[in-house]
Amino acid sequence: MGSPGQTTTQNNGQYLGVTEPISLGGPSEFDHIKTAELEKFLVSAGLYESQEEAVRREEVLGRLDQIVKVWVRKISRSKGFSEQVVQEANAKIFTFGSYRLGVHGPGADIDTLCVGPRHATREEDFFIELYEMLAEMAEVTELHPIPDAHVPVMKFKFNGISIDLLYAKLSLWVIPEDLDISQDSILRNADEQTVRSLNGCRVTDQILRLVPNIQNFRTTLRCMKFWANRRGVYSNVAGFLGGVNWALLVARICQLYPNALPSMLVCRFFRVYTQWRWPNPVMLCAIEEGPLGLPVWDPRKNPRDRLHQMPIITPAYPCMNSSYNVSSSTLRVMTEEFQRSNQICEELELNKVGWNILFEPYPFFEAYKNYLEIDISAEGADDLRKWKGWIESRLRLLTLKIERQTFGMLQCHPHPDDFSDPQRPHHCCFFMGLQRKQGMPIQEGEQFDIRVTVDDFRHSVKMYTLWKPGMDINVSHIKRRNIPSFVFPGGVRPPRTTKMSGTAGRPNAVPSTGVSVSSHVAKSDTGLPDDELDGVSEVTSMGKRKRDKANEELVASKRASMLPLANGILTSNSEIVIAPAEPVEIQTSQTAEEVAITKITSGQGDGFGSPVEELDELDEYTTFVPMKTISEEQQKSMVDSVKSCPRNGQAKAIAAHSGSPVDKCENGSVEELEPVEELPGSGIILSNSKAETQRKPLIRLNLASSRNKTTDA
Question: pLDDT digits over 589-605, tens only?
Answer without folding.
Answer: 556 788 888 888 887 55
